[in-house]
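check these tokens.
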Amino acid sequence: MEFELARNTVRYAEQLVIKTRRPREGNDSVAVYLDTLLVGPWLVMAGIDMLGRRFRLVLFVATVLLLFFWIVARGISWQPVAPALGMAVGIVYFGLPSRTVTAGVTEENIRSLCSYILDAAPNVTRLERLQAGTSLLRSQITDRLGRINVVIGICWAALFGYASAHVLAPGLAPSILGNGILFTGIAGIFFAGLLGIAISHTTAVRAVYLTLDFALLEAKAAIFNSQQFIETSAGTRNA
């Protein structure tokens, strides 16, 4: 069934990105619950790991810039810390697309997924159906990520509105201001955690589908080269 083929292929790509946890075989209720509780969070952890590498790169660039500023100023001062950090974020964020966009995508994962695809879809017709099926799944995942962004935007608007009325508004009573600061701080930590989880999940999902896209390209190339070899061999024998 094409649905099963597409779902199993995406699941295998998820397994390659997660690395540490293998999805349970089957689609019964037990498998769904176990995947949700024991495997799903590791997809977020994989995204955190990808973002962590970028964050470490930001710290490295910021350290180099800070040392440069200290050498130029001929003295150690904490004033250049914020400019160095801001410049480092800009340098990493607007870095080479070949470095930033392909984070989490490895040749090893692509080769492994390509072999899986060739075993499941050994000809062009089956491969095209597989690609169409994974595209349908991708559209659903993209829609869900869009809904998550809407929820995060609503939470941010609610938090900002509450802070404006209970923290930033002039003439507040000390008791109201204290409660407002406490609630805003707790809500801000919760919002930052929610935002971090959403970004990490999106990063990992992007790596899953980039790996899948490149694996499909490799599978198409392998099938085409195989057909060319067969046609060339047949032409040689006929000659």
